[in-house]
Amino acid sequence: MHTxxxxxxxxxxxxxxxxxxxxxxxxxxxxxxxxxxxxxxxxLWRFPAxxxxxxKLQFNDFVRFLTREFERLHHRExxxxxxxxxxxxxxxxxxxxxxxxxxxxxxxxxxSYQHAQLPRRLSPAQLRLLFKASxxxxxxxxxxxxxxxxxxxxxxARRSGQSQSSRH
Length: 168
Fold this sequence. Notes:
Helices cover 64% and strands 0% of the residues. By secondary structure, the protein is mostly helical. It has two domains: 11-106, DNA polymerase, domain 1; 124-167, no CATH class. Helix 1 (11-24) runs antiparallel to helix 2 (29-46), helix 2 crosses helix 4 and helix 3 packs antiparallel against helix 4. The longest helix is centred in the middle third of the chain and has 20 residues, at 76-95.
């Protein structure tokens, strides 16, 4: 555990301690640079005119910082990376007993979306049910119908229907 002087610790001194922690974990130089960028951004935002006062950190400082950064970082993957770095920083601060343990788990998760998939072939009855479920003029219904019209499953069913009708 590192002791912190009453006046605080310089950003360079803290970054040196954190870098040692990260290098022991075997992170690449590129990942280390990313951690340094997020660390500098956070501490310069939280303590703009003074040394870092680690004992004054509050959980809401991290939440407010993330909220501010997520407004700036529109890409989900960028948000996920910054969140990962902040969690790592929180684990380090907890390990060094500057903050209580568990703050890293209290940060929100970034949801990852998975697109729904339709089966490869749908019967005409199944297609009618899907179209019926997407009835209405709400934007979501219009989107669902557009996706159904573009769906390979729709075309596969339509092609099989056409080939059956051409046989008769």
